[in-house]
Amino acid sequence: MSKEKKDKKGFSRRKFLVRGAVGIGVVLGTGYLTRSIWRRGIAGMINTAESPYMGDTKTPPLWFEVTAENQIILHSPKVEMGQGAFTGLAQIAADELEVDVDRIKVVHAATSTGNIDGFGTGGSTSISSLWMPMRELAATMREMLKNEAAKALNTSPASLQLNNGVITGGGKAITYGEVVAGVQEWEIPKTPPLKDLKDYKFVGQPVARVDLADKVFGAPIFGMDATMPDMLYGAVVRSSLIGAKYKGADTSKAEGMPGVVKIVKEADFVGVVATSRMAAENAKKAISVDWEVDRNWESEDIEAMIQVGQGDPVEIQKKGDAKGLLEAEEGLITAEYKSPIGAHAQLEPNGAVAYVEANKATVMISTQVVEITRSEVADRLGFSKDQVNIVPTFLGGGFGRRLHTPNAIQAAVLSKAVGKPVKCFLNRKEEFQNDTFRPPTHHVLKARLSEDGLIETIEHNVSSGDVMFGSALTPGFLDPIVGADIGAWRGGMIQYGAIPNFRAVSWRVKLPFSTSWWRSLGLLANTFAIESFMDELAIKAGKDPVQFRLDQIQDDKAGQRLKAVIKAAAEKAAWKDEVVDGRAMGFAASTDANTPCAHVVEVSIEEGEIKVHKVTCAMDPGIAVNPDQVRAQCEGSIIMGMSAAMYEQMKVKKGALTPTIYGPYQMALMRNAPKEIDVVLLQNDDKPGAVGEPPMGPIGAAVANAVFRLTGQRLREMPLQLV
Amino acid sequence: MDISFQINGTLRSVDVDENTPLLWVVRDVIGLKGTKFGCGKAACGACTLHVDGEAVRSCSYAVKYAEGKNITTIEGLGDADNPHPVQQAWMEEVVPQCGYCQPGFMMATAAMLDKTPNPTDEDIDANIVNVCRCATYYRMRKAIHRAAELHTANAQNS
Question: In this structure, which topology does domain B85-157 adopt according to CATH?
Answer without folding.
Answer: DNA polymerase; domain 1 (1.10.150)
